[in-house]
Write a structure and sequence with these properties.
Strand order of the largest sheet: 6-7-13-11-12
Bound molecules: flavin-adenine dinucleotide
Number of domains: 3
Helix content: 25-40%
Shape: globular
CATH class of the largest domain: Alpha Beta
Distance between the termini: 23 Å
Number of strands: 19
CATH topology of the largest domain: Uridine Diphospho-n-acetylenolpyruvylglucosamine Reductase, domain 3
Strand content: 25-35%
Order of helices and strands: HEEHEEEEEHEHEEEEHEEHEHEEEHE
CATH architecture of the largest domain: 2-Layer Sandwich
């Protein structure tokens, strides 16, 4: 499912009317032909026809209504830490959802706007002696991206501590959705299928000692440092771990995409500037100057090798945005 509200078959976003109306709504904050690579942790990809960095949920709702009215595609980027942007760039308006507020709702919940970073939310809660989010320390990206993909760490899902989410649909209608209606599962939320955008989320918290919460956050950071290639440009895990119904595995082989890629002999394997990390088999790293086409070719090679060796077809956790060259 593409992360766009509509597909343009040419580049209607470049019309004068589009330019005038985007500028009248957002002024100089709207960029034109804006490079996206620097806005992603993979550091690859082409340009956006139009780019707007949002400051609040209201900006998101205004942009949704305006692009719906203009009939141009809308694509959302949070922290850009789980996406591969195509070399051909992204048509229409790209929203870079940033900034926003965190506030206490009541004794046992906090609300964070979708542009708040997960790390910012962790710091905010830990500092106030509110426990629940500390183990998510070091997760790149924003609240919106974390909700969309239901970020996971150490066997837990972010959705498990969510109580409600604010969503806007493609017509601009805003709703408060209880967590039970969010369709949360491993790497899954309803947002992936509904084309709704996340405006904010509420999280369950409980009183805790600041020192204990800080210690738990530090343990998460240390674990990441040990197990992930944090000194390289990447988008985190490329593939989801296979589910039991994806097929049997030989005794002793873990249901871990990284382990399967490693056992298929692909650690260190390269296509151009893209390489399978030596530290973690499920990370592809940009060694410098990798194109999206090279990254995608390496992803396809990993999938083919794992399928050949284990009969399991890996599915991407990472999201493709924009235009990719097709292989001849
Ligand atoms: C070093 C490293 C370590 C990582 N570790 C983990 C980990 O432990 N666990 C884990 O789950 N992930 C991990 N990731 C992946 C990534 O951090 C998470 O998936 C994160 O939640 C993505 O958030 P983001 O804001 O960067 O989203 P983006 O990458 O910007 O976007 C991802 C998807 O979410 C959509 N999206 C973004 N914002 C919104 C919004 N407001 N409303 C609707 N859709 C939106 C985008 O359109 C896109 O489809 C890691 C990545 C890196 C680089």
């Amino acid at each position: 499912m593409p992360d766009q509200f509509s597909d343009g078959d040419r580049r209607p976003a470049l019309s004068h009317d589009t330019a005038r109306r985007l500028r009248s709504a957002f002024g100089d904050r709207v960029g034109h032909r804006a490079p996206l690579a620097r806005l992603t942790t993979f550091r690859t990809g082409g340009v956006a026809d139009w780019l707007l960095e949002t400051r609040s949920p209201d900006d998101i709702v205004t942009a949704v209504r305006l692009t719906e009215d203009l009939g141009i595609p809308l694509t959302v980027l949070g922290g850009g830490s789980n996406v591969l942007v195509g070399d051909g760039g992204v048509q229409g308006l790209v929203l870079r959802v940033r900034h926003g507020a965190v506030a206490r709702v009541d004794a046992c919940s906090v609300r964070a706007d979708s542009g708040v970073t997960i790390n910012g939310l962790v710091r905010w809660t830990v500092h106030r002696g509110l426990g629940g989010l500390e183990r998510w320390a070091g997760t790149p990206g924003t609240v919106g991206g974390g909700i969309r993909g239901n970020a996971h760490f150490d066997g837990r899902l972010l959705g498990d501590i969510v109580t409600a989410v604010g969503l806007v649909d493609s017509t601009g209608r805003v709703a408060r959705v209880p967590a039970d209606d969010m369709g949360f599962g491993y790497d899954v939320s309803r947002v992936q299928h509904s084309a709704e955008l996340v405006l904010w989320a509420e999280f369950r918290v409980a009183a805790g000692a600041v020192a204990d919460l800080r210690a738990a956050a530090r343990r998460s950071l240390a674990f990441r440092k040990r197990t992930q290639p944090l000194d390289r440009a990447s988008a985190g895990c490329v593939f989801q771990n296979p589910r039991p119904d994806d097929g049997p595995l030989p005794d002793g082989v873990p249901r871990s995409a990284g382990a399967l890629i490693d056992l298929a002999g692909l650690k260190g394997h390269r296509v151009g500037g893209a390489a399978v990390s030596e530290v973690h088999g499920n990370f592809i790293v940009n060694e410098g100057g990798a194109s999206a086409r090279e990254v995608r070719a390496l992803i396809d090679r990993c999938r083919a090798a794992v399928r050949e060796r284990f009969g399991i077809v890996l599915r991407e956790e990472l999201v493709y945005l924009g235009e990719f060259e097709t292989e001849e």
